[in-house]
Design goal:
Number of helices: 14
Shape: globular
CATH class of one domain: Alpha Beta
Strand order of the largest sheet: 13-14-15-17-18-19-21-20
CATH topology of one domain: Spore Coat Polysaccharide Biosynthesis Protein SpsA, Chain A
Radius of gyration: 34 Å
Number of strands: 21
Structural class: alpha+beta
Largest sheet: 8 strands, mixed
Distance between the termini: 117 Å
Helix content: 25-40%
């Protein structure tokens, strides 16, 4: 036993002397190097394990229960990728779902009108008057949607119109905007209520008012540019600077309509009721939807073809210089003068939709061309009007709408979100206006005819253009090329045997072609 204790004591002394005793051959540097090697090895081991942990826990298979199950079963997981995953919000409001969901994403899937559900806001008191506007564009055989009322509608309802729904009671929600309307709460919940109807095969919910006129094929072209599996809030703001300042530049104005993708509608439905009380001080329904989507971190994706039309009166100048984008919607029909002369508003839009039926994509699209021989300028708003000037006008100037309309609030303090041109008081400086009269489709393409409006001639002009009474425009049906870089069409003045009739051919511009006559 004594020998064992003596041996252990010698071992301890030997270990101590190996590092610290100056009597040994090893110095303190040797001891330091041994300690460093042991520490470095430990550090490298920990760092390697940490890197492996990060690689494994961020792999998509470990964030997808389906992929992980396949991996555990030894199944090939090569078809799983980040593109097949959609991460949810950090904090899933009112939900016990996982932070990550697997989604069968088919970005290139074709969206049709059947996949778009239209939800329109109205009231029992206004529906009988406003339904004539919905009849203009609604296609019951291919479209789905509803009209949401505040109470039951008393009266006949045609099956050619969307079904009527009565909104849920919203009296439990606070509304603190002074002199506002509580109906804003009801209308703001329409998309959520529509989502709870469990409609199948929905890509988009499109919201509008009962006096919103949609151009469905153009809307379809616009929405087809986007992946409906992602969170999208698509629309446009007001044409009025004042209205945007008061409400928001980042808000889709409800009258112009907006689209919400199905996954975003799902997220909105889960959290909207709690959101509404947070924003009780806001004025309108569109402001409430904008606020709730802001809480979800989703901004507005602007598409300029959605039109709130926050101006009044004769909108001829604006319609004749529509921006280079598909016409998706028009609003405030009761606040504008009939868009065609000698018709009421319903008749005027029925007339417009004859051209829309022939070529929806081209409606209101502006083409600019020149008559070099007679020194004239032609601004064609296809399917609506042609403005003829007795002089050469620059394309940049013709792109600006003539201010034939008034501010929404009838004040001089407002401004528009686009440039305008003043209308000259001198009739000899104003263009002659030709309004769309008829459309026909033949073997050569689409022919639209435009008749001169009476009372806008210059008695002092000696231009041969003053003799014009009718203009015919030949074009081919537009291809769905709105996903490409936008460019105006070009047009040519064709030879005519008569001084009172002129033919114009609209076509795609050639590479490098200059519109201005050189």
């Amino acid at each position: 036993m004594a020998k064992l204790r003596h041996k252990q004591q010698r071992m301890r002394e030997s270990t101590t002397e190996g590092c610290f005793s100056p009597s040994q051959s090893q110095t303190w540097k040797v001891c330091f190097w041994k300690s460093f090697k042991h520490g470095l090895g430990f550090f490298c081991t920990c760092w390697t394990l940490y890197i492996l942990y990060l690689m494994l826990t961020t792999h998509p298979c470990l964030q997808s229960t389906k992929c992980l199950a396949a991996l555990m079963a030894g199944t090939d997981t090569s078809n799983f990728s980040i593109k097949n995953l959609s991460s949810g919000p950090t904090k899933m409001a009112q939900s016990n779902e996982s932070c990550y969901e697997t989604v069968n994403v088919s970005i290139n899937a074709n969206t049709t009108l059947h996949n778009i559900v239209f939800e329109l806001a109205s009231s029992a008191g206004k529906w009988n008057q406003r339904k004539q506007y919905v009849e203009l564009w609604w296609k019951p055989e291919v479209m789905r949607g509803h009209v949401w009322l505040d109470k039951e509608f008393v009266g006949p309802h045609s099956t050619s119109l969307p079904p009527l729904k009565v909104s849920e009671d919203t009296s439990r929600f606070r509304y603190t905007f002074k002199k506002g309307l509580r109906s804003a709460i009801r209308i703001s919940r329409i998309v959520s209520e529509a989502f709870r109807l469990n409609i199948s095969d929905v890509h988009w919910f499109v919201m509008g008012d009962d006096d919103t006129v949609f151009f469905p094929e153009n809307l379809l072209q616009v929405l087809s540019k986007y992946d409906h599996n992602q969170y999208y809030y698509i629309g446009s703001n007001s044409e009025s600077v004042e209205q945007n300042v008061v409400h928001s530049y980042g808000m889709a104005f409800g009258g112009g309509g907006f689209a919400i993708s199905y996954p975003l509608a799902k997220a909105l439905e889960k959290m909207q009721d709690s959101c509404l009380d947070r924003y009780s001080y806001l004025y309108g329904s569109d402001a409430r939807i904008h606020a709730c989507l802001a809480d979800l971190g989703v901004p507005l994706t602007k598409e300029p073809g959605f039109h709130q039309v926050d101006f009044r009166g004769n909108i001829l100048g604006w319609l004749s210089a529509h921006p280079l984008t598909p016409l998706v919607s028009l609003h405030h029909l009761d606040a504008m003068a009939p868009i065609f002369p000698n018709m009421n508003q319903t008749q005027a839009f029925q007339h417009l939709f004859k051209a829309v039926k022939a070529d929806s994509s081209k409606i209101l699209q502006q083409a600019i061309c020149y008559d070099k021989l007679r020194r004239g300028s032609f601004s064609v708003s296809w399917g609506y009007s042609i403005h003829v000037f007795d002089s050469i006008q620059l394309p940049r100037e013709l792109e600006y709408p003539q201010k034939t309309f008034m501010y929404w609030r009838k004040t001089m303090t407002d401004q528009f979100m686009f440039n305008t041109r003043d209308v000259s008081r001198n009739p000899c400086e104003r263009p002659a206006v030709f309004f769309y009269e008829s459309v026909s489709i033949g073997a050569e393409g689409i022919n639209t005819s435009y008749i001169r409006q009476t009372g806008n001639s210059c008695p002092l002009s000696k231009s041969p253009l003053q003799a014009l009474k009718q203009i015919t425009v030949l074009s081919t049906k537009s291809q769905s090329d709105w996903k490409q870089a936008p460019r105006r069409h070009c047009c040519d003045i064709l030879t005519s045997s008569s001084n009172d009739i002129l033919d114009i051919h609209i076509r795609s511009c050639m590479n490098g072609e200059v519109i201005y006559p050189e």
